[in-house]
Structure formats: structure tokens, C-alpha cells
Design a protein that fits this description.
About 20% of the residues lie in helices and about 30% in strands. It has 2 helices and 7 strands. It has one domain (about 25-125). The radius of gyration is 18 Å and the shape is globular. It is an alpha+beta fold and about 130 residues long. The N and C termini lie far apart (about 55 Å).
Length: about 130
């Protein structure tokens, strides 16, 4: 019984160490605003966040902004992209119906596997 417990504990510690080494430094929260909205009616918010990672594993979550904007925003999407030689992710927010308000300010939580950093989000006209 003691040997089985010891093996189990060592497995957990080894798994945790591997997960930390693989995950990169962290997730982050960024604020996106109306300056990142594509022009035209029903424009999507399109922001590129440099991360230094080429992993396709990424997650984005509206966090508390989901309660602020509720039915205005569809679930967010993140896509791995390289833009002007920088690796990172594009965050897309699509309006559920109508246009986004001009005072839009949305906080999202971001994660990309292997991210070395999270740069300032910038508008991208195409991705």
C-alpha cells in the first residue's frame, strides 16, 4: 500500500512538472475596444495579440464582459496566425445582432500554449 501511494504521488509530481514546463508562462487578460472593429455595418472586432507561439491550442473567454454585453456578443474565437513575422493569435468577437456600441470596451482572458509573452492587441484588417 505504501509503495502504491508513493508511486501515485511521484506520478502526480512528475505530471505537474511536465505541465508547467509545457504550458509557457501564463494566461492573461486584455482589453479590446472599438478601435479594433472592422469598418462597416455588423463589423467584427479583429485583434491580433503577439505571443511568440505557433501553437494552434488557444482559448479566449469573455470573463465578466459576457455579463455586461450579454446578447450583443457571440462566443469569442481565437485563431493562430503569423502576421508581419510575429507569431500569435487573432481574437474575433462577432456581434450577435446589430452593431457594436461605439463605447465598446471588452475584457477577455487569453491563453495560447507555449506563449512566451502577450503583446498589445492591435487591429488587423485581414487575418
Amino acid at each position: 500500500m505504501k509503495i502504491a501511494t508513493l508511486v501515485f504521488a511521484m506520478t502526480l509530481l512528475t505530471s505537474a512538472a511536465l505541465a508547467e514546463a509545457d504550458d509557457g508562462p501564463f494566461a492573461t487578460e486584455v482589453t479590446l475596444d472599438y478601435s479594433q472593429i472592422a469598418p462597416g455595418p455588423g463589423g467584427w472586432l479583429q485583434a491580433f495579440v503577439p505571443t511568440g507561439s505557433s501553437s494552434e491550442v488557444c482559448f479566449v473567454n469573455l470573463g465578466d464582459s459576457g455579463t455586461l454585453y450579454g446578447t450583443l456578443i457571440e462566443p469569442p474565437v481565437c485563431l493562430r496566425r503569423t502576421i508581419d513575422g510575429q507569431q500569435g493569435i487573432v481574437v474575433l468577437l462577432m456581434p450577435w445582432s446589430g452593431d457594436f456600441p461605439s463605447n465598446l470596451s471588452v475584457r477577455v482572458s487569453l491563453y495560447q500554449k507555449g506563449a512566451r509573452y502577450y503583446g498589445r492587441p492591435v487591429y488587423v484588417p485581414q487575418f
